[in-house]
Structure formats: structure tokens, C-alpha cells
Amino acid sequence: MENESLLHQKLSLFGVNPKKEERHNDNKTTSSAVTIRGVLTSLKDNLNEKDKRPVIHLGHGDPSAFPCFRTSTVAEDAVVDALRTAHYNCYSPTLGVPSARRGIADYLNRDLPYKLSPEDVYLTLGCSQAIEISLSVLARPGANILIPRPGYPLYEIHAAGSNNNLEARHYDLLPEKRWEVDLDGVEALADENTVAIVIINPGNPCGNVFSYQHLQKIARTARNLGIIVIADEVYNHLAFGSTPYVPMGVFGSIVPVITLGSISKRWIVPGWRLGWLVTSDPNGILQNSGFVDSIKGCLNAASHPVTFIQVCESPIN
Predict the structure, then answer these.
(1) Positive or negative, the Cα torsion across 12, 18, 24, 26?
(2) Which pLDDT tens digit goes with each residue over 237-275?
């Protein structure tokens, strides 16, 4: 109960932090310059145009760019059918089309010991916007968030872009332990201003998959520290090796989990820009603290995913 009270205290300090205007931020510029995409863009801009040798992009995250991967014709037909009804040329509801929210909840419920409702699901412009909204809600003066090293640089970029209201602290993944989280390091990094820990499972860029036992340890560590878990699961079920994929939401009764995902990778449609932010929190801590209201407030000031894409992806399979 003491740890739950600490978490409730921290969450009560969160407020809506929608971007009113773009401001120059040297930290954001510096962070974006060291991403894989930034390096690849720089290399591409400096290629010798007279050199005709083919270039292989080892940092490419778009499976649809390769002919061996093809979007299902069922999905393509669904888009065409949705467009031809002329019912979905309108703006999307702020939180997402209800049938799409229900379809994603049902899809995620297949792997959970409790049931999500459509009200737990918020649709976003890809997983990238889900990351941005999560960090916007968490940002406040003095707050810090724990992110993996190596990891996905967008978390650091958005933390740096929060007008210094969210410090990114890096914990290590341990290569000798199949890139497990260094939980001792996490406990040493965290303090009274730590608000969340980010995990990416399956891992990006390492491709590792956390075991059930390790995820449970992460949940218990987060509970003891009085912080929430942000689980980036955009590669869910794209798991290699013998370790089965387990969603972090399974442990939502131990600690509140913000689950981030999208249709981009598994369904080979990154250009369709449909993602989600899901509150996996059967104890209602996020709702009671006002955290959910802050998410809604951010979405009120945000752009929304395309309406006919939401419709054609519900129910999701």
C-alpha cells in the first residue's frame, strides 16, 4: 500500500502538456542528430552519385519496402470498401473510432488474464505519437524517466523536447544475459522524481524477447520504486528464438502499464499510421489519479489517425 500511495502521489502531479507552439530546443536537435535515421540520411546525402553500386540500408524499419513482404489483400480490400461507403471521409472522434477501439481491446485481451474495455484504448498517429503523448503527460519540472540503452532514440528526443521538464536517464541492457534489464542499475538510477520506466519488448534494436519471469521482476521493481511501466510492444509477436512473447500488460495488477503498439510492423503497413496507447491498469490507479484525463487532454490538442483506416482495421486480426 505504501508503494501504491507513492505512485499515486507522483501521478497526481501530472498535468496536460500539449504543445502550444514549436520552440527551438538544442537538446532535441542534438538528440535527433545521433539517431540511426539521422546518420543514414547524412550518409545518403553524401553518396557519390557516380558510384552505381547498390546500397543496402541496414537501419531500414519499413518491411513494405521489400518485395518479399506484402500487405494482405484482405486489408487492402477493406480500405477500398471503407472509402466507397463515403461514410468515413469525416474527422475521427478524438479518442478513436469506437469499433476500432473495441477491436484492439479484443485483440489484446487474447493474451491478458483480465479484460480491457474499449475505454482503455486510445488511437494515435502510429506508435510515434503514442510515445509523444505518454511523455507529454509525464513531463513536469524535475521529473525523470528511465529508458533502455541501447534503445529506440525517439524516447530521448521527446524527453529532450519537453522544455527540460523530463530528464532521460539510461539504464543498461545486459548482453551477457540476452539483453535483460539491469534491474540493480534501475534501482540505483531511480529517485523520488522518477515517474516511469520504458521497456521495449521485443527489443529494438537488439531483437531480444523478455521472459515471463523477467517481466514479472520488472513489474515488481517498478512497484517498489513507485513508478509506472511504459511497454513499447510495436513488434509484438514478431519474436525469434525459443522465448515466447508475453505482453507487459499481463502484470498490470502489480503495476500500472501503458502499452504502446501499432499495426505498422506485424501487418506491414507503416504508412497507414495507426497506433494505440492502452492503459493496462485493472486497479484503476491511472484513472483515479487523473492520468487518464491528461491523456484525453493531450489527444484533444493532437492530430488523429485517418478515419477510414481505423474502420478497416476493426475488428483487428
Answers:
(1) positive
(2) 888 889 999 999 999 999 999 999 999 988 899 999 999
Count CB neighbours of 193 within 10 A: 15
Asked if residues 173 and 208 have their Cβ atoms less than 8 Å apart, the reply is: yes
Q: Residue 169 phi/psi, 5° resolution? A: -115, 135
pTM above 0.85, yes or no: yes
C-alpha cell at 203: 527489443
Amino acid occupying residue 295: I
Query: Closest by alpha carbon to 218, among 173, 271, 274, 155?
Result: 173
User: What is the C-alpha to C-alpha distance for residues 69 and 214, in angstroms, rounded to an integer?
Assistant: 32
Write the CA distances from 215 to 29, 170, 188, 209, 221, integer angstroms: 33, 18, 19, 10, 10
Question: pLDDT per residue over 151-165, tens digit each?
Answer: 999 999 999 887 768
Q: For the chain, give the percent of residues with pLDDT over 90.
A: 68
pLDDT band per the 50, 70, 90 thresholds, residue 7: confident
Cis peptide before 256 (omega within 30 of 0): no
**Is-contact 146 119, C-beta < 8 A?**
no
Amino acid sitting at position 160: A
Question: What is the rounded average pLDDT of the residues 6-19?
Answer: 59
